[in-house]
Design brief:
This protein has a single domain (9-237), classed as NAD(P)-binding Rossmann-like Domain (Rossmann fold, 3-Layer(aba) Sandwich), CATH 3.40.50. Helix content is 37%, strand content 20%. It is built from 6 helices and 10 strands, in the order βαβββββαβααβαβαβ. It starts with 8 loop residues before the first strand and ends with a strand.
Length: 238
């Protein structure tokens, strides 16, 4: 277990190598202790294995923001549970779970006649994995700590999508949209279940970023929900 030297909240973040995950690590790595989960590409900040050096001043460190990277393929059985165990072993606690990992594969539904993998993968990564991560954290750490959970404002923020709030007239988005609808419902049900533990569960549903809204605004919304009092809500972000 890591010896804690700060009072920063501990955030377990999936999808850390993506556009949103990297932005969150860069802009909030000094505010949170982040366990950053990525499959292959790591966020472009210093971590336990990498340091940034100015070639003109090699004596000066440029790694003020350092995260703890966990490499994992969340599609594999047992990996979500391992991620939770690894984060808890390193930091000793998790105060905020941000599920930002996403599977996007454009395919028309007629392709189901050849293979259901694109629908299965979307449902598993985008809906089942976030619910499984929250359930694993609840079983491994949050259960039996209600007063502490309330005091520490522990909560879950699932990154959904505007595509999960209504029909999107875009060929090939059926699997992605359906998985985000499922995530929204799972968010609401899990909020009701974890309320007794003193843990909140919400989702944010941004429209396309960075094309329609800045990625920074999505990161800021995660922090806003973390610091607020909402529970069981889907926050649309236009």
């Amino acid at each position: 277990m890591r010896t804690r030297t700060s009072q920063r909240r501990v955030c377990l973040l999936t999808g850390a190598g993506g556009r949103l995950g990297s932005d969150f690590c860069r802009r909030y790595g000094a505010s949170y202790d982040i366990a950053a989960v990525c499959r292959r590409r790591r966020p472009d900040v210093a971590d336990q294995d990498r340091r940034y050096v100015d070639p003109l001043r090699p004596d000066r460190r440029h790694d003020a923001v350092e995260i703890f990277t966990i490499e994992a393929d969340l599609r594999r059985p047992g990996e979500p549970e391992r991620v939770v165990d690894t984060a808890l072993a390193h930091f000793g606690r998790v105060d905020l779970l941000v599920s930002a990992a996403a599977h996007v594969e454009r395919e028309r539904l007629t392709a189901l006649c050849e293979s259901t993998s694109f629908l299965d993968d979307a449902m598993y990564v985008n809906a089942t994995v976030p619910a499984l991560l929250a359930a694993s954290l609840a079983r491994a750490f949050w259960d039996g700590r209600r007063a502490e959970n309330v005091e520490q404002r522990r909560n879950v923020v699932n990154v959904s999508s505007g595509a999960g709030l209504g029909y999107v007239d875009s060929p090939g988005l059926a699997a992605y949209s359906a998985s985000k609808v499922a995530l929204n419902f799972l968010t609401c049900y899990q909020a009701a279940e974890l309320r007794g533990m003193g843990v909140r569960v919400n989702a944010i549903a941004p429209t396309t970023f960075p094309e329609l809204i800045p990625t920074e605004r999505v990161s800021d919304q995660i922090v806003s929900v973390d610091s607020g009092e909402l529970n069981g809500q889907i926050v649309e972000l236009l």
